[in-house]
Amino acid sequence: MNSKNKKIVLTGDRPTGRLHLGHYIGSLKRRVELQNSGEFDEINILIADDQALTDNYDNPEKIRKNIINIVLDYLSVGINPEKVNICIQSCLPALHSLTFYYMNLVTTARLSRNPTVKAEIQMRGFANEGLPAGFFAYPVSQAADITAFNANIIPVGEDQLPMIEQTREIVEKFNKIYGETLVMPVAVIPKNESQRRLPGVDGKAKMSKSLGNCIYLSDDYETVKNQVNGKMFTDPMHLKISDPGHTENNIVFAYLDAFCTDEYFAEYLPEYSNLEEMKEHYRRGGLGDGVCKKFLIKILEEILSPIRAERKKWESDINTIYDILAHGNSKARKITDETLEKVKNAMQINYFNNLY
Ligand code: TRP
Predict the structure, then answer these.
(1) Within this chain, do residues 95 and 28 fall inside the same structural domain, yes or no?
(2) N- or C-end of the chain: fewer Cβ atoms within 10 A?
(3) Which domain does 260 fall in, by range?
(4) pLDDT at 355 over 80
């Protein structure tokens, strides 16, 4: 079987902070499911430190420290390094070479149209301060990541769709000019809308460290409880328990939509058998916000406490984490170097192969 018929998964994260519930429900949980499904020939997770540096070049310490944090998060949620290859972008020099060659296949006009990059440019103030060329071109480096691993299945959040689209264009152009070489990737996004877009605890569109509206996988029980009780708004019209309430635009219900399964009712709130029944009661009136929040806290605790326990174990064994990364890097290095060689052959940058 050649690499084109294999099912090869690649996902990646920028190591810019600890991972939170939004990451968990939008991607980490799914990675564990993919890992345990046994359906894939290879699963790779790339810690994209070079990409993170494109907008954190003035704060390398942050990136450095978060590499270990992010691996701790992976291992705590159940990612198994024997089944999943975890590696670091900057340790794979082939990725840089590929990026340089792919730059020729992308116009600056095309890069400027990437909606995710556009939004990030605004958010980071690059529109006024000047836009670093490295940041502008990071979608090209992401195309290098994806193609270097021969990855054809890319599970990502919606904001990453423009990157995969751009990668597909690069693959098509490369193969057309230099001959069939690169594998065409496909993006896979979560089906469940509420899991795809978990809002911050304050109702803002996304969890973000600077807004203080995250629940981190490493947060303790008290912190989680305070975030839910102190920051999550429900329905401002639902003043008395007997008032009819709204479940849409109600953050507690947005979280229940994302995390609650029927089993939690049997365990913690047996007066209902599913979320729809609970919502019905809330809309009718007679169900208090306190009960809803308490239920949510119980669910979150049931999810987070095993993650916390697992994290504690790994925290006392950081050396093993370095071993896991070293092993992941050497495996990834082999794969990515091979792709670079194929690319260079296709581009006829193989001067010494047939000189003698
Ligand atoms: N851009 C991705 C993010 O910010 C991270 C990433 C880098 C990635 N390389 C990748 C994701 C390759 C998927 C495949 O989340």
Answers:
(1) yes
(2) C
(3) 221-311
(4) no
